[in-house]
């Protein structure tokens, strides 16, 4: 089947921001004396900020330690650390093949949407200069349900006027791939297959995608 719509996650798919999320969570974890590794960080990919905090606190056995207000403060602390990193971003942190893939899809007449859980997506798109390559941008500021709920991808398809079954999703997280499948979309995993078991296909990077096969 040829797909007429492509929906992209942002962090870890188009831009190299995953490392900054890890560093920001790691700094918070260290302050709270919670052991936190890069493997632990895999569980946070594609997940909302508050859900990620819950996972972090669970790792430290602190899930019942904080009030809702205190948790909001901790999540805000992490975000401040993360934003300090991404304010220094530029186009050099786009992942290899990202712009070329988006350009190729546009030339084929494929509609393109961003479907990201990040509330910082507009800043990242601006800093890296790729905002204009999307027909629709859906991020954490415009949806209320986090992946693996399919809302972010469903909203993107709805705004583009595309049937869910005509959409292919590019994701680097298990939660994001599960969201794509829950929406009835084709799920393309970007990364290591061992971490992306919900994908229909897995490519190690964007340069491995055979566009003519799917679009």
Tell me what you see in this structure:
- By secondary structure, this protein is of the alpha/beta class.
- It folds into two domains: 5-16 and 91-214, Rossmann fold (3-Layer(aba) Sandwich), CATH 3.40.50; 18-86, DNA polymerase, domain 1.
- It contains nine helices and six strands; from the N terminus they run βαααααβαβαβαββα.
- The chain has helices at 18-31, 38-41, 49-59, 68-86, 98-107, 121-128, 151-160, 174-182, 211-214, and strands at 5-8, 111-115, 136-138, 167-171, 186-190, 201-203.
- Strands 3-2-1-4-5-6 form a six-stranded parallel beta sheet, with helices on both faces.
- α1 (18-31) crosses α4.
- The mean pLDDT is 94.
Keywords:
9 helices, 41% helix, 215 residues, DNA polymerase, domain 1, 6 strands, Rossmann fold, alpha/beta, globular
Runs in which pLDDT lies below 50 for 5 or more consecutive residues are: none
Q: State the share of residues found in helices, binned by percent.
A: 40-55%
CATH-defined architecture of the largest domain: 3-Layer(aba) Sandwich
CATH homologous superfamily annotation of the largest domain: HAD superfamily/HAD-like
Structure at a glance:
The chain has 215 residues and is of the alpha/beta class. It folds into two domains: 5-16 and 91-214, Rossmann fold (3-Layer(aba) Sandwich); 18-86, Putative phosphatase, domain 2 (DNA polymerase, domain 1).
SSE layout:
Elements (H helix, E strand, L loop, with lengths): L4 E4 L9 H14 L6 H4 L7 H11 L8 H19 L11 H10 L3 E5 L5 H8 L7 E3 L12 H10 L6 E5 L2 H9 L3 E5 L10 E3 L7 H4 L1
Parallel strand pairs: 1-2, 1-4, 2-3, 4-5, 5-6
Helix pairs in contact: 1-4
């Amino acid at each position: 089947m040829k797909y007429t719509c492509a929906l992209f996650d942002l962090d870890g798919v188009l831009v190299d921001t995953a490392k900054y999320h890890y560093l920001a969570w790691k700094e918070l974890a260290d302050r709270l004396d919670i052991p936190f590794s890069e493997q632990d960080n895999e569980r946070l990919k594609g997940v909302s900020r508050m859900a990620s905090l819950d996972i972090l606190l669970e790792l430290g056995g602190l899930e019942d330690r904080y009030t809702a207000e205190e948790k909001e403060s901790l999540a805000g602390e992490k975000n401040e650390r993360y934003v300090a990193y991404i304010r220094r971003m530029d186009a050099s942190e786009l992942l290899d093949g990202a712009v070329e893939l988006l350009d190729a899809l546009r030339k084929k007449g494929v509609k393109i949407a961003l479907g990201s859980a990040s509330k910082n997506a507009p800043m990242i798109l601006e800093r890296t200069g790729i905002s204009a390559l999307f027909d629709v941008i859906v991020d954490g500021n415009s949806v209320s349900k986090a992946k693996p709920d399919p809302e972010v991808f469903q909203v993107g398809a709805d705004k583009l006027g595309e049937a869910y079954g005509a959409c292919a999703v590019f994701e680097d997280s298990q939660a994001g791939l599960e969201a794509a499948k829950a929406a009835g979309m084709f799920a393309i995993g970007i990364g290591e297959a061992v971490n992306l078991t919900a994908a229909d296909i897995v490519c190690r990077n964007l340069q491995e995608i055979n566009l003519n096969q799917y679009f």
